[in-house]
Amino acid sequence: MTSKQQQSSPAITLAIAGSEATGGAGAQADLKTFQQLGVFGITALTCIVAFDPKQNWDHRFTPIEPQVIADQLEAIQACYAGQLDTVKLGMMGSPATIDTVATALRAQQWRNIVLDPVLICKGQEPGHALDTDQALKANLLPLATFVTPNHFEAESLSGTTITSVEDLERAARIIHEASGAAVLAKGGVRLAGSEAVDVYHDGTTTEILSAPKIGEVAVSGAGCSLAAAITAELAKGATPLDAARTAKAFVTAGIEHRVASHAPFDALWQGGATA
Ligand code: PXL
User: Fold this and answer.
1) Is 26 in the pocket of ligand 1 (CB under 6 A)?
2) 3-state secondary structure 229-252
């Protein structure tokens, strides 16, 4: 490589995530976010989610065979050995997938492992994912350098109930102490008030990130895009706190420019920040 080529080479950034066919969430949101923020995006797919328009847009979930997940990761890690040091983990969906992903992660050194601990998606009922929840806590949380739980996931990972910003701060501290990772615990539209409040905590710094709520209904892809934006910023060398701030602004703009559809939820548009 010439030095000119090296200078203009984008950071290589991997998302291990599920496909969400309508393009609002999952690997599609990750890739669009990576592109928008100027990193070279790659995905290894863990599952395919196809909402069911005949059944209230419920999730039809198809896991990808563990061997097929392992094959994708083998190709990616061999292809970018020595160049790939930043990964985002999205929807895993099963303990078997978590095992496969954890094994591949342990095969190399990472600078950044951003875990979006996806337990349920918009509109789904909580409580169906206990075994996945436990596998995630046991096998992925210890590897993470940055974790982005939403309200439900922060309650689950911290074992606390969250009804206020103070509760969210406490949960962020507990999750940091359990994992050693920087934590961005997201209140989103779940906490009362006119602001969408997230709490950043990394053991030394606590910062409340706040933006006026844009409606009271969660937008599809907000969580995925937030974690992907953090990942892209970390890949480019930002500090965890700066990555969180940039990602919050990116997602706020994407929600402002959201895309409506025939589904009962709008989708964040990653182009919102430059619209
Ligand atoms: O928004 C969480 C999420 C992540 N990944 C996939 C999804 C969803 C929600 O629908 O389908 C693949």
Assistant:
1) yes
2) HHHHHHHCCCCHHHHHHHHHHHHH
Cα 21 to middle of ligand 1, angstroms: 10
Residue with tokens 């209230």: 56
CA distances from residue 274 to 19, 53, 195, 270, 271 in whole angstroms, order as listed? 25, 32, 23, 9, 6
pLDDT digits (tens, 9 = 90+) for 188-207: 888 999 999 999 999 999 99
Compute the distance from residue 221 Cα to the ligand 1 centre, in Å.
7
- Percent of the chain having pLDDT more than 70? 94
Out of 22, 28, 49, 58, give the residue to mutate to test ligand 1, the one with the largest number of ligand atoms within 8 Å of its CB: 49
Tokens representing residue 243 in the block? 């990555």
> For residue 94, is pLDDT > 80?
yes
| 98 and 135 Cβ atoms separated by less than 8 Å | yes
Vertex 46 angle, CA 107 and 32, to 5°: 100
Average pLDDT (124-133) is: 67
Domains identified in the chain and CATH numbers: 10-274 (3.40.1190.20)
DSSP letter at 140 equals I
End-to-end CA distance of the chain: 35
Work out the number of other CB atoms within 10 angstroms of the CB of residue 37.
24
pLDDT 10s digits, 1-28: 444 445 679 999 999 999 999 999 999 9
**CB neighbours of residue 194 within 10 Å:** 8
The structure's pTM equals 0.95
